[in-house]
Amino acid sequence: MKADQIHFIRTELDRCANMREQKQRIKQLKKFKTCHYVPVYRGNHIYPDSDEEFYVSPMPLGKPDNQSFLGILNDELWFGCGLTEKEAVALEIQLECQFESIRQYAMALNDDMAHIALYSRGLDLWQRQKNFCSKCGTRNHLESSGHKMVCENGHEQFPHIEPAVIVLVSKGDQCLLGRKHTWPPNVYSTLAGFVEAGESIEDAVHREIYEESNVRIKNVTYFGSQPWPFPSSLMLAFNAEAVSDDIRLDDEMEDVRWFHKDELIKWAKDGSIILSPRFTVANNLISHFLGKRI
Ligand SMILES: [Zn+2]
């Protein structure tokens, strides 16, 4: 893998969005194609000890109404199965293994499996939060093979994605990293924040960097995106050059500072600082800046 290659950026999975309303077609395909059913509980999956991949069942799990069509990969159909607490506990007992977050297993998954895990996680978390319509308060039910909620008065709701910008700001051989008060000790990362209502991504990049560090930037270039359903973000990554270097912190940040490339490599190696895990786009941005994987 190249130093700057973003994890989970591409997949061979065909989401087949035009099939979601075609219940009969999916039902027919199920009869003669291999199907994989991914149990999901609160966005988490089961990772059996002996296996690097998450557990997949050849048979449907949970209630049929909670089955989400994810798409087709290598001519095989994939479904997410959102489980109730009771169903999840029963499966944990059966498999002698517990539901866990993708975070600690992400690096072991290939891109296609990571996509399916993140995709089923994002849908499941959204579905669990949307029992009632946000417009009229009546009960929602799932439609469009798990991709749409409709209430008793016909109001439609779709999965909610929150775009966030994440930026590596450089100044020659130095880059700008920071840490929030809430983070574990010594953890530093690229600056990031959510795009606000009525705001362009371009403006959000300039605003977030200025708010968190007081640094002004230029030459902003798009680096890539990464799905980040924790619970519902889409990370939009950028590189930028500093036009000022005087740092002033806002209330959110405990520390923001310039790191020289050599310091960064040395301190990350000896544990003086802890950078974001390798599967994160923050790590990909820093690796790209250093010209080597860190
Ligand atoms: Zn409604």
UniProtKB/TrEMBL annotation:
Name of a matching Pfam family: Zn_ribbon_NUD
Cofactor(s) needed by this chain: Mg(2+); Zn(2+)
EC number: 3.6.1.22
InterPro entries the record matches: NAD-cap_RNA_hydrolase_NudC, NudC-like_C, NUDIX_hydrolase-like_dom_sf, NUDIX_hydrolase_CS, NUDIX_hydrolase_dom, Znr_NADH_PPase
Reactions catalysed: a 5'-end NAD(+)-phospho-ribonucleoside in mRNA + H2O = a 5'-end phospho-adenosine-phospho-ribonucleoside in mRNA + beta-nicotinamide D-ribonucleotide + 2 H(+)
Keywords noted in UniProt: Hydrolase, Magnesium, Metal-binding, NAD
Transmembrane segments: none
Family: Belongs to the Nudix hydrolase family. NudC subfamily.
Protein name as it appears in the record: NAD(+) diphosphatase
Gene from which the chain derives: nudC
